[in-house]
Amino acid sequence: MTFKPANTMVWFELPVSDLDKAIAFYNEVFQTELERVAMQPNEIAMFPVEKGGRSGHLYPGKPPARGTGPTIHLLCPDKLADTMERFVKAGGEMVSDPITIPAGTFAYGMDPDGNSIGLFTS
To answer: Which end of the chain has a smaller Cβ tally under 10 Å, C or N?
Structure first.
């Protein structure tokens, strides 16, 4: 029997060197309000989603060496070009042009900590 769930992604955790700066970056880029939550062993910042949605959080930690960790793709709140512009203005770096696939269009970027982030629109 082959395990084939409806969704393979359950949750993501993204390490950041400065939680306050990372919250400001992601709030600006994705036009959202991450929610601070006191968890053990430290505070985290959760990406908001509608009830039943899948998400993840930022946590104080040591990011992998620039561009060597996994890539998470986050949904853009508006046009890809607008999100890319905010990404760079907020301190990130775009590392690809837009790429179109059957499911939508995305571009790769590096957040200020060097985490690989895909900006996705359907």
So the answer is: N
